[in-house]
């Protein structure tokens, strides 16, 4: 029996998943690491924490595997990684500063400068994406402006999982699905954009060589092999961005397939075979982890995070299940209470780092459960704005695969079916993007002839939620009210910035 390992380098933790070639889960281990938030809007992590905890989870998997199989039957390891984070290395490949993460919003000025210098249309035509605070190029320009000495010393930039893979193998690479989120990649032509690098004074050598997601990146260094117990000959394959891997693990590998993922952030993701559709930058347009395929995606920055924040503040000692008990008994609309999930700004459809969240319509009859339901509905309304963009562009969205923490609660899944007005299905294995990473490893190692063949063995749908027409109608009216909150709170939120 052959085995593969998928590693998901997330925002709050790293998870390693051991699967056999039959698609059975044979082990998993998770370890957390902290966020460093020095100022409002800043979000950083220590790359060495990722490496340390990845070593630990692999060590744990190997220890539990002993006696059950041979280590040389582990034929591949691959990655899923939190996107966009900037890691800078010097000439001797030492980390120059903490990584600046995807949810760090310090770069509004750099985004404006990108448009002023290069023009929005030019950026869109090359990278297929708008300049957003979370992306990597604005972070590089922030370092160039605020830490010029350090920028001068940088010899290469890396994305989070690419750095961990470098520490595992000693080889420096990136791959297309993550590179697409840097704003430095010519997405249709799959190469670093010389034009953008030249405009912004970025040396070509700062951009690492690119691989396909299933491409072979190297074998383990003797040190990494010693520290984890894995054989030094173990093959490592490039891996993909977390959303690309989430999509692979949910079998979003052909036209017409749509994904809803509610993790810390939330995404609505749609498979694209073509590189030339025009969404005018309203949604992200990235290379898939499948060769020569793409996906479009709308992002709600604080999706699951809004609910976790609510629990942390108002039900700290309880489990998520306890907090959400009874939410299904409350009528859609939470008795006239609306929530917008802009706890740390927003991306789709309002790229706005300054907007903040609101509860509107608070009444003395509202209980904590009404607030919890309003939070879940607000997150789902926000994701529906991405679905609306896709539908307005002519896409048919009738079935949505729901994954992530948000897919754990049946009331939330029914709410998704009602608000999205679509059939919602769940997966039989809730392993998140680590499953997509394991599929990439299995395909890279040659266990399957294609990603789709592997996904067929590794994944299957489980439950189905059909829209309830009465609720669909009710939510359609509430959604129209929800959409009025952003424009009517934008100016107030901007003025409140000086008090934060
Ligand atoms: N039992 C639950 N019911 C509903 N939502 C949940 C539950 N447990 C976690 N969540 C939501 O899922 C989110 C975490 O999802 P996950 O996919 O693990 O995120 P990430 O990979 O970004 O860390 C939490 O922020 C929370 O909102
Ligand atoms: O910024 C994006 C996508 O563009 C995020 O999806 C991050 O890649 C990480 O998200 P979580 O999986 O931690 O929610």
Automatic annotation (TrEMBL):
<feature type="domain" description="Carbohydrate kinase FGGY C-terminal">
    <location>
        <begin position="259"/>
        <end position="444"/>
    </location>
</feature>
<dbReference type="InterPro" id="IPR043129">
    <property type="entry name" value="ATPase_NBD"/>
</dbReference>
<dbReference type="GO" id="GO:0005524">
    <property type="term" value="F:ATP binding"/>
</dbReference>
<comment type="function">
    <text>Catalyzes the phosphorylation of D-xylulose to D-xylulose 5-phosphate.</text>
</comment>
<comment type="similarity">
    <text>Belongs to the FGGY kinase family.</text>
</comment>
<dbReference type="InterPro" id="IPR006000">
    <property type="entry name" value="Xylulokinase"/>
</dbReference>
<dbReference type="GO" id="GO:0005998">
    <property type="term" value="P:xylulose catabolic process"/>
</dbReference>
<feature type="site" description="Important for activity">
    <location>
        <position position="8"/>
    </location>
</feature>
<dbReference type="InterPro" id="IPR018483">
    <property type="entry name" value="Carb_kinase_FGGY_CS"/>
</dbReference>
<keyword id="KW-0067">ATP-binding</keyword>
<feature type="binding site">
    <location>
        <begin position="83"/>
        <end position="84"/>
    </location>
    <ligand>
        <name>substrate</name>
    </ligand>
</feature>
<dbReference type="InterPro" id="IPR018484">
    <property type="entry name" value="FGGY_N"/>
</dbReference>
<protein>
    <recommendedName>
        <fullName>Xylulose kinase</fullName>
        <ecNumber>2.7.1.17</ecNumber>
    </recommendedName>
</protein>
<dbReference type="GO" id="GO:0042732">
    <property type="term" value="P:D-xylose metabolic process"/>
</dbReference>
<dbReference type="InterPro" id="IPR018485">
    <property type="entry name" value="FGGY_C"/>
</dbReference>
<dbReference type="GO" id="GO:0004856">
    <property type="term" value="F:D-xylulokinase activity"/>
</dbReference>
<feature type="domain" description="Carbohydrate kinase FGGY N-terminal">
    <location>
        <begin position="3"/>
        <end position="249"/>
    </location>
</feature>
<keyword id="KW-0859">Xylose metabolism</keyword>
<keyword id="KW-0547">Nucleotide-binding</keyword>
<dbReference type="Pfam" id="PF00370">
    <property type="entry name" value="FGGY_N"/>
</dbReference>
<keyword id="KW-0119">Carbohydrate metabolism</keyword>
<keyword id="KW-0418">Kinase</keyword>
<keyword id="KW-0808">Transferase</keyword>
<feature type="active site" description="Proton acceptor">
    <location>
        <position position="242"/>
    </location>
</feature>
<dbReference type="InterPro" id="IPR000577">
    <property type="entry name" value="Carb_kinase_FGGY"/>
</dbReference>
<dbReference type="InterPro" id="IPR050406">
    <property type="entry name" value="FGGY_Carb_Kinase"/>
</dbReference>
<dbReference type="Pfam" id="PF02782">
    <property type="entry name" value="FGGY_C"/>
</dbReference>
